[in-house]
Amino acid sequence: MKILVTGGAGYIGSVATEELIKAGHEVVVYDSLIQGHRQAVHPEATFVEADLADREKLNTVFERHNIDAVMHFAAHTVVPASMRDPIRFVRENVDNAMNLLETMAAHEVNRFILSSTANVYGDPERVPIRESDRLAPSSPYGESKLMIERMLYWCEVRYGLRYASLRYFNAAGASDAYGEDHHPETHLIPLVLKVALGLNEHLDIYGDDYPTQDGTCVRDYIHVVDLAQAHLLALESLDDGSRICNLGNGEGFTVQEVVATAREVTGHSIPVRIAPRRPGDPATLVASSQLIRRELGWEARCPDLRDIIQSAWRWHQAHPRGYTD
Ligand code: UDP
Predict the structure, then answer these.
(1) Which protein residue has the closest C-alpha to ligand 1 atom 14?
(2) Residue 138 within any structural domain of the chain
(3) I want to staple 169 with a disulfide (CB 3.0 to 4.6 A). Which of 83, 220, 221, 286 is the partner?
(4) Quick one: 59 and 104 in the same domain?
(5) Does 255 contact ligand 1 (Cβ within 6 A)?
(6) Are both 68 and 132 inside the same structural domain?
(7) How many domains is the chain partitioned into structurally?
(8) Shared-domain flag, residues 6 and 17
(9) Is 141 designated active site?
(10) CA separation, residue 251 to residues 207, 278, 289 (Å)
(11) 179, 237, 248, 286, 292 from 130: Cα distances, Å
């Protein structure tokens, strides 16, 4: 198939592109490079540097390429930024997705995979979280993804769209070639590794008074290659119907446990400082991954936290300052 990957120069989009190409698909990467990196674009992908706000450009891409399916990774994803500027944040995420869906409908492209998020559940009533549990986003970021999920439903009703919405828990780790490099970096594992590389002096732990075993937040970390693999399975299963699935390993680790594992992997003491809680952070987010295992036959190849951190560490050692473009 020929797949349009929006955000293919970003962290998850670059790894998904790599997996698609390995599986024999053709990929057109569409990325503004505002957050993405030119070096993260797979050399065998066709690259279009453009913004999803540019509807004319988007239309040209669908005219030029015989696109069979779209994987939509491009989005604003930083939760604290969404708390500071909710209107602009939600508007851009939703508008860009609507531009994409409208252009797809005009060109009769009806296969779509959405990067969604565990943030749609907010502070969950129970863990592990199931897809049918209460939806109460804990940030405008999660709200924007939920709005897009709802519109996918209406696009199915009106245009016959087949979609999979994958609600990511915490993507982590790296492939050999592609890793995590955000500016500014806000994610735990790359920040921990920056301390191990000597680029930062310590890690701030955001809150140690949560109702968890050591007081720090619990998250479900999933290897980015396992996450990318789930996109391929979701794509292959679209003919059976649309679906919404959690994408996590089903096991939670506290921030302190992540730091302890990173100390073992890197051999560095990784000093920490306890800082105030970060607004919008739920205490515990752990996926029930039963649905995706049952319906798509997905299995994590790298579920072990130590292996996940090890792969990230290899990538950060090879790219201590991230991508250099
Ligand atoms: N976290 C932290 N210090 C940091 C960055 C993150 O203590 O410098 C915590 C954060 O509060 C959350 C967990 O690590 O509980 C994972 O945060 P991340 O931003 O990686 O992902 P999120 O769960 O927010 O999507």
Answers:
(1) 188
(2) yes
(3) 220
(4) yes
(5) yes
(6) yes
(7) 2
(8) yes
(9) yes
(10) 21, 22, 10
(11) 29, 20, 11, 9, 11
Q: Could you tell me the CATH number of the domain that includes residue 291? A: 3.90.25.10
- The residue ranges of DSSP E strands in the chain, in sequence order, are 2-6, 26-31, 46-49, 69-72, 111-117, 162-168, 170-172, 203-206, 218-219, 221-223, 243-247, 253-254, 272-275, 284-285
Q: Which of 11, 141, 163, 178 is catalytic?
A: 141
Q: Give me the tens of pLDDT residue by residue for the chain, a chain 325 residues long.
A: 999 999 999 999 999 999 999 999 999 999 999 999 999 999 999 999 999 999 999 999 999 999 999 999 999 999 889 999 999 999 999 999 999 999 999 999 999 999 999 999 999 999 999 999 999 998 999 999 999 999 999 999 999 999 999 999 999 999 999 999 998 899 999 999 999 999 999 999 999 999 999 999 999 999 999 999 999 999 999 999 999 999 999 999 999 999 999 999 999 999 999 999 998 889 999 999 999 999 999 999 999 999 999 999 999 999 999 998 7
- CB of residue 185 inside a 6 A radius of ligand 1: no
Report the residue among 222, 255, 270 best suited for mutation to probe ligand 1: largest number of ligand atoms under 8 A from its CB.
255
96 CA from centroid of ligand 1 (Å): 26
Structural domain boundaries enclosing 230:
2-172+221-247
- Same domain flag for 242 and 267: no
CA atoms within 13 A on the CB side of 116: 28
Tell me the angle at which helices 255-266 and 188-196 cross, rounded to the nearest 10 degrees.
Answer: 40
Predicted TM-score of the model (pTM): 0.97
